[in-house]
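Researcher: Sequence recovery benchmark, item below. Answer with residues only.
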């Protein structure tokens, strides 16, 4: 019939969870037609993803279950998404899913209060940090403090922020030093 087509993959589940300092990525399909493979992608900011692993598709009309373990996860919050690739090269994306990995890093400071309202304290602050950012759910930087602003204090003004969940990210030289999820309320 004209206008009818079958989707190549029907995804019934996609999860990422921390288990024993590793991230377990699992997904299930209820049907696969012309499915070639899946690519698991990972990101530390939820916007820029890189390939982590390729998993061959089962290409089964009854679907299947898949599992991949990220044995070297990033510290802090990481985002995982699934890219499904058909035999003809067509791609579909699923996700992302986020996980919080605390690797027992002694350099991770205390961030309080959480939830916060008018101010936030970070203690201690490493002298290696260059920038501290507050990022909203859409990935926009809503507050940013450079080293000069926090070299003498560890208390940060949150005035003017809408209530919600934000990602606090500290950047050192060319890499994320740590990140934490915080809630801002009034």
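Model:
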């Amino acid at each position: 019939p004209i206008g009818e087509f079958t989707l190549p993959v029907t995804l019934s589940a996609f999860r990422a969870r921390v288990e024993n300092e590793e991230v377990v990525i699992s997904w299930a399909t209820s049907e696969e037609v012309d499915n070639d493979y899946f690519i698991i992608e990972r990101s530390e900011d939820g916007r820029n993803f890189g390939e982590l692993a390729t998993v061959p598709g089962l290409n089964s009309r009854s679907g299947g279950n898949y599992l991949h373990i990220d044995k070297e996860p990033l510290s802090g919050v990481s985002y995982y998404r699934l890219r499904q690739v058909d035999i003809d090269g067509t791609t579909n994306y699923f996700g992302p899913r986020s996980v919080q990995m605390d690797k027992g890093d002694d350099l991770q400071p205390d961030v309080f209060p959480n939830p916060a309202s008018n101010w936030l304290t970070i203690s201690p602050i490493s002298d290696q940090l260059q920038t501290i950012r507050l990022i909203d759910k859409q990935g926009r930087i809503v507050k940013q403090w450079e080293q000069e602003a926090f070299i003498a204090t560890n208390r940060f003004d949150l005035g003017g922020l809408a209530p919600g969940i934000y990602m606090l990210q500290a950047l050192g030289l060319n890499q994320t030093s740590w990140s934490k999820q915080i809630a801002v309320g009034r």
